[in-house]
Design brief:
Largest sheet: 6 strands, mixed
Strand content: 25-35%
CATH superfamily of the largest domain: Periplasmic binding protein-like II
Distance between the termini: 56 Å
Number of domains: 3
Helix content: 40-55%
CATH topology of the largest domain: D-Maltodextrin-Binding Protein, domain 2
Radius of gyration: 30 Å
CATH architecture of the largest domain: 3-Layer(aba) Sandwich
Number of strands: 15
Order of helices and strands: HHHEEHEHEHEEEHEEEEHEHEEHE
Number of helices: 10
Amino acid sequence: MDRLKAIESFVFAARSNSFSGAARHLRVSRAMVSRRISELEGHLGVRLFHRTTRELSLTSAGRQYFEFCSNTLQALEYQDETLSRMQQEPQGLLRIVAVRSFGIHHVAAAIADFQKSHPRLRIEMELTSGGLVATQLIQYGFDLGVGLAPAPKSRLVARRIADFNLYLCAAPAYLERRGVPRSLAQLAQHQCLIHQRHNPSGVWEFSRHRKGLRQKIPVALSVTSTWALREAALRGAGITPLPSYCVGNDVREGRLVRILDRYAMAGGTVVALYPHFRMIPARVKVFTEFMRREFDGKIG
C-alpha cells in the first residue's frame, strides 16, 4: 500500500462525500480510490466511512483521522510551495566541496564575484584532493562538487564547466642554468618534478600526430600538491607538467616557459557534480551557470 496516496484518497473522498468526486480530483478510477481506502482501513484496523448505496459519511474514528490527515496534507502543500520558491530564488546556504588545486584560486574568486550579485546566499566551501570530491559530496551532504573528470561515482551527474591543458614548463632561471631540452629523450638529463598521486610511475605520456609517446624521467621532487609543484618550478627546481588553470598567467607573463610544446600532454575537464539529477536547487544551478560563463569553456 502506498500510504500517502491512500491518505490523499481518503481526505478527498471525505471532503466530497464521494469516492467518485475523489477519483475525479485525483484523476484515477473510482475503483482505485475505493481500493486505497479499503487498504487504509485494513492497515488502521478501523472503518473510516459508513457506506450505503446512497450516502458516504465519516465514522467517529474517520472524523478524527480526517482532521489529522487534512492538517498534514496542508502542511505538506505549504512546504512544497516554500521549497518551490527556494528552487526559483538563489538564497540560503550553498555548500560546495571542490578539488583543492582548482578551488584555491578559481572557485574562491568565482564565489567572491558571484556573491556581489546574490547577497542573500551564504556559501561554505571545503577543499579536498581530487579523488575525494565525489565521496565527500555524497557522504557529507554537500550541494555541489567541483572536481576533475571523470567522476568516479556513477550515482553522480557531471556537468562540464571548462577544459584545461597540461603545460610542460620550467622557470627561465632553470633553463638558463641547465639548458632547454630539444627532445623527449633529453628530459632524462634534467631535474623533473612530479605529482605523486597523478604520476607515481615517473613516466610522462605525450602525443604527436595522433601517436602516443612515453618518456621515463628522473624524479628530483615528488609532492602531492599542484600548487607546491608550481612554487618549486617558479623557484627553479626543475621541469614539471602543470594544468593551465594553475600556470596560465605565469606562462603569459614569462615567469614560466613552456618547453617541448610540439608534444601534447593530456589535459582534462573541470566538472560540476550533483548528488541527484532532479530537483537541483536554484542556488546550485545559478552558481554552476555563473562558473560556466566565468571560465567560458577554457581555462589557462
